[in-house]
Amino acid sequence: MLLHLLALYATFQGCYSDADQLTAAKIPTHCNPSSTILFRAIGNIYPDGNHYVKVELGDPPLQYLFDFDTESHFTWIQCDAPCQNCLPIILFNLSMITND
């Protein structure tokens, strides 16, 4: 099953490329705030329980794995720079879920 993710549309709408043909050389460097790019989704619901896309950001590029949520159109990454007054990273804790 091949899923495509419409991601980062707020940043890249209009910079469209077919997910099977997407290469760094084909992504325009002049994308505007109303641009879109399609990414190939990787993963499966069973047994992994997630879908994600591989994205390279920065110069030099660093690879990030973005889990995506179909109920939201926002995404973010934690910067690698020394951080002052940054938000703490809160990881999901499955043991906190109750079955009331």
UniProtKB/TrEMBL annotation:
Residues 51-100 form the Peptidase A1 domain. Coiled coil: none annotated. Residues 1-17 form the signal peptide. Pfam families: TAXi_N (PF14543). Keywords: Signal. Gene3D superfamilies: Acid Proteases. Belongs to the peptidase A1 family. This is Aspartic proteinase Asp1-like isoform X2. It comes from Tanacetum cinerariifolium.
